[in-house]
Amino acid sequence: MKAAFIIFDQMTTLDLIGAYDPLTRLKSMNILPEFEWDMCSLTQKVADDRGLRFFPDTAGEPLGEYDLIFVPGGFGTRSLQFDTEFTAWIQTASSAKLKVSVCTGALLLGSAGFLAGKRATTHPIAFNELEPYCQSVVDQRVVDEGDVITGRGVSSSIDLGLFLVERLAGADARRRIAQQMDYPYWNLS
Predict the structure, then answer these.
(1) Does pLDDT of 175 surpass 70?
(2) In CATH, what number is assigned to the domain containing residue 105?
(3) Of the N and C termini of the chain, which has fewer Cβ atoms inside 10 Å?
(4) Measuring CA to CA, how many Å separate 147 from each of 43, 98, 100, 118?
């Protein structure tokens, strides 16, 4: 399995890292040793909403080779959802088996057409912005629509990452990784 973590200017880093940490432990804890990932961007350099710099593994490359794409949120989504070049780039992931977002990253999945006819969630302050892109906005921490999974606000990224771990490798893997992270989610069923 190969994942693309989408990065862009003005993203919220916790949105990204909250899911990145548990997902990449699939490999580091030898649960899914074949799990691979790239940091993917449309540009060569990226800075989050507070100036932290990121350097992508790939820039401007099509996303069709990935099984999973993960799109964080942040202030940058407000303009990127209307950026035709960025939207066209995200659309190159149409063949990905899983398209995932957290927070306002849902606006980017929506602008690419991936939320049409589906339920979705985002940060509560962006519920109204998300409505035109999906069948209905759901006030839940994680919304699973099969090939598209959306997570609510910033901190839900950790829950979403662990949800994905369970989806990819089972409940025992989720418990082991959450326990290794010292995250209370591992105590849940």
Answers:
(1) yes
(2) 3.40.50.880
(3) C
(4) 27, 5, 8, 10
Q: What is the per-residue pLDDT across 6-17, written as a single tens digit (0 to 9) for each? A: 999 999 999 999
> 88 falls in which pLDDT band (50, 70, 90)?
very high
User: Which entry of 23, 98, 103, 130 is annotated as an active-site residue?
Assistant: 103
Residue 134 falls in the annotated catalytic set: no
Q: How far is CA 102 from the centre of its chain?
A: 5
Cβ count near 67 (within 10 Å): 16
Tokens 């992931």 belong to which residue? 93
Residues 6+ apart with CB under 8 A from 97: 67, 68, 147
Give the SS3 label for residue 165.
helix
Phi-psi region of 147 (alpha: psi -120 to 50; beta: other; left: phi over 0): alpha
